[in-house]
Design goal:
The chain is of the alpha+beta class. The protein folds into 3 domains: 91 residues, Orthogonal Bundle (Arc Repressor Mutant, subunit A), CATH 1.10.10; 81 residues, Roll (SH3 type barrels); 76 residues, no CATH class. 30% of the residues lie in helices and 22% in strands. The strands form 3 sheets. The chain has a 5-stranded antiparallel beta sheet with strand order 7-6-5-4-8. A 3-stranded antiparallel beta sheet has the order 1-3-2. The two termini are 19 Å apart.
Length: 304
């Protein structure tokens, strides 16, 4: 069943900054020098569609900001990253590079949107695609922005037939595998997660009497203290500390209570049976405190 069109007043668009400012181009120079180790004017010209003189001005400006980051190779007519290179922009950090590489490999990011030039051979474990209606997503976004309730037809996994519900959406959430909309369900009288792909149709707009501030589980922030499994050898514990970027033998993750169920599941910390330390390499130091937040939920936090 194809989602129906619902008319919701559009907000007036705001005029933002130019798409390709010089600062953005300086970020590009910084990124390419760090991860490609080289740069020439044609890289800027091809990516941003600017003139060669403008590319020269951008490189000159970058040289003023970070003179020890690059050196010119006259024989190759190319700029090389110097041994004293230190990134200027946050976008040059490893997390940005690897996230872009992953998104490009997964087909989520086109070459025109990523600063990556050359890339190594890369493979990822496949994840089944999730079909989602663009019309449904657009209506949900407008309802969230405008504060509307929507009458929807939803296919739950707990009932054999679709049911009609009135939802007041206020946020989107991703559990690592699929997108949900966080909404107040007027039928159940509580905030819940609804898989967007399971919304079969959207009907009338209705006024809502709830807001995001009413969603206690969304507003509650929880700290999870992760540590190496004490059953591991000392050497293996140090490896886990490095792997997770731990300091003083622990790392803290911050999570909304509404997403706690998913996070524990993704980390393999939701199972009650004990596993070998080599299989469960991390443990939750504040497990009793975190368990209290799970027990506070009126129903399991899994999506409807």
């Amino acid at each position: 069943m194809r989602p129906s069109h619902t008319q919701i007043p559009d907000a007036r668009p705001t005029r933002g900054a130019p798409k390709w400012s010089q600062e953005r181009r300086l970020e590009f120079i910084d990124f390419r020098l760090r991860w490609d180790g080289k740069l020439n004017r044609s890289d800027l010209v091809d990516f941003f569609g600017i003139s060669t003189p403008q590319a020269s001005l951008d490189i000159a400006r970058y040289t003023e900001i970070a003179p020890e980051n690059l050196e010119y190779d006259r024989s190759g007519r190319i700029y090389l990253a110097a041994g004293t290179f230190k990134p200027v922009f946050p976008a040059t950090q490893p997390a940005r590079y690897l996230n872009d590489l992953l998104a490009a490999t997964s087909g989520l990011l086109g070459s025109e949107s990523s600063f990556i030039g050359w890339s190594p051979s890369i493979a990822t474990t496949p994840i089944p695609g999730r079909i989602m209606s663009a019309d449904t997503l657009a209506v949900l976004l407008r309802a969230i922005r405008g504060g509307y309730a929507l009458r929807v037809t939803y296919q739950s996994m707990t009932r054999p037939e679709p049911t009609e519900r009135v939802l007041s959406p206020h946020a989107l959430a991703h559990n690592g595998f699929r997108w949900h909309v966080r909404a107040f369900c007027h039928s159940r009288g509580q905030f819940r997660d609804f898989v967007i792909a399971r919304i079969l149709s959207i009907g009338d707009i209705e006024p809502t009497v709830t807001s995001q501030s009413d969603d206690k589980e969304w507003q509650t922030i929880i700290k999870l203290v992760l540590a190496p499994n004490p059953g591991l050898s000392g050497a293996h514990q140090r490896v886990i500390e490095l792997d997770y970027g731990m300091e003083n033998g622990e790392v803290i993750l911050v999570c909304r209570q509404a997403l706690l169920f998913y996070l524990l599941r993704n980390l393999g910390l939701d199972e009650r049976r004990e596993k070998r330390p080599q299989a469960q390499q991390i443990v939750l130091r504040n497990a009793d405190e975190v368990a209290r937040y799970l027990s506070e939920s009126a129903e399991p936090l899994a999506p409807s």
